[in-house]
Amino acid sequence: MKTALRGIWLVVAKSVRVSPWQSLLCMAESLGGVISLLQPLYLAWFVDGVLHHDTGKMALAVAAVAASTGLSGALNMAGCDARVRQFERVGFAFDTEIARITASIPTLDHLESSKYLDQLQALRDQQGALGGALNSFLNTFRNVVFAGGTLVLAAGADARLLLLVLAGLPSVVATRWIVRWQARAEEESAEPGRLATHLLELSTTAGPGAEVRVFGLREVVRARLTDAVARWRAPMVALARRTEVVNAACSVFFFGCAVAVLAWMVHDAIRGQVPVATLVLAVMLVGRLQNTANVLRWSIGNITQLARTTGRFLWLRDYEREVREAHDGTQAPPAILRDGITIEGLAYAYPEAVEPSLRDVSLHLPAGSVVALVGENGAGKSTLVKLLTGLYRPTAGRVLVDGVDLADLDLPAWRARVSGAFQDYAKVEFTAQESVGVGDLPRVDDDREVRRALREGAGEDVLASLPSGLATQLGSSWPEGVELSGGQWQRLAIARGMMRTEPLLLVLDEPTAALDAATEHALFERYAEAARAAGGRGAVTLLVTHRFSTVAAADLVVVLDGGRVAEVGTHAELVAARGHYAELYELQARGYR
């Protein structure tokens, strides 16, 4: 109940903030419903006037019906129009808020969590439901008011009509089952829904489309997509079937009771114990009394649905607040590094993972040094990079920047002093100038700096191939857009990482995977020279690679194996030690002989 009230308050408060007057106007529909509620009473007056030849009462009844119909219709139109307008506005406000929350969560842990992704998928499946939650609440309020008025009329006409309220109770009780079925159906459909979306992207996007066609996977993907869609929608189909069976059974029971009550009243009317006008009113109220049970059931289901939908939004908002509170540091990062970056007992486990990706990692990255981080695929190199940049929260241990815990630093300020190129680089389909320049937003329009970054990132040849130079639109899906090769996109990503000229931490996380080994070696040597030239500010340059031949220029080599630090030393020291590094180095070296 507390969750439902919190959800109602969230929706109403959002509506009032979006447009207070429009929110007030939405209530006109409920007022119109109250006015139309009395029309069966006016008809009973008319029948009584006919029976008693009372033209005054007949005229009053006709006037009341006409006035209530006109006024109710006008209020319903005004309220309905306001409700639809507010539905769109509130829905847009919630969609904007969801996008803002999702984009502003300072870490990336949530994108690795199946629980988070299932919640987000459920929100997507119920797209517009948060705007619709206001609509549901207003409809519920209007119908509850209408149902309450109907009960008052029924009690005033003949107490036996209240027996029909009891006959509608099974329908209300059944709501509890239907609500549980709905919640289970939404949960069961979330994961296959995500799978269906993924398979659809495999089938309809250019990147994976090549492999799908070359390997003859179209029928396989289509079959799996068909199965995923079927499993995605199956819970909802089963829900609809169960619900309709329950509805039919409850309706049969209600109308059976209604026939018995009306037969009883007709019998008394024939004997003169019940006025004919009362019987007419009773006949007209039977349908409304059934609707009363349905309205109560529908309202319970609506409020429960509203609570589930707003509950997901509130979960997302609470998650963002939790992450922000965990990164509530306010201390500014140092202007220069004097000691360096120290890692103490660092561990990290991905959400829902059985085994940690990193465990008990302790290192010191000296200020002004070039550090090569090497290891086989899955050793934990990229995970360590994300911990150093604050993209992940450590499961255990800490990262110290000149002796200050990274958790105590202002995270956006620390990120402003970090730069790099990453293994999973983004294809920023802006102009070439913007695609590189966004690496340092204040200088995104500075041609000279963008060209410098391209030179340092070995991207001059990419620029030379573009028909309009830096003004070229990238991406073939845009008008006059130019598509680039994987290596060209990667060089632009490297250049983007070169835009910041004074980072305290420069991370190059396998940024040259699409380049040949010789080019990678040359680039890493260039980076090492540039890093030493800028050593006055104590910057740490971290070169991440699984190619051991490129790291000889590094001051320090760190070898990761199975999420642990296996060896630390210079290239020469590790080769001489004849340990894990030397073994892997020799294995790779054979491939080039």
Automatic annotation (TrEMBL):
UniProt KW NAD keyword: no
UniProt main location, coarse: membrane
Pfam families: ABC_tran (PF00005)
Residue ranges of the TM segments: 24-46, 58-79, 245-266
Gene3D superfamilies reported in the protein's UniProt record: ABC transporter type 1, transmembrane domain (1.20.1560.10), P-loop containing nucleotide triphosphate hydrolases (3.40.50.300)
Record's GO cellular component terms: plasma membrane
Domain ABC transmembrane type-1: 31-305
PROSITE patterns (UniProt xref): ABC_TM1F, ABC_TRANSPORTER_1, ABC_TRANSPORTER_2
Domain ABC transporter as annotated: residue spans: 341-587
Key words, A-Z: ATP-binding, Membrane, Nucleotide-binding, Transmembrane, Transmembrane helix
UniProt cross-references to SUPFAM superfamilies, sorted A to Z: ABC transporter transmembrane region (SSF90123), P-loop containing nucleoside triphosphate hydrolases (SSF52540)
Region forming the signal peptide: none
Top-level division of the source organism's lineage: Bacteria
Family matches, as SMART domains: AAA
Lipid bilayer topology: Multi-pass membrane protein
GO molecular function, one term: ATPase-coupled lipid transmembrane transporter activity
Compartment annotation: Cell membrane
InterPro entries, A to Z: AAA+_ATPase, ABC1_TM_dom, ABC1_TM_sf, ABC_transporter-like_ATP-bd, ABC_transporter-like_CS, P-loop_NTPase, Type_1_exporter
This protein's name: ATP-binding cassette subfamily B protein
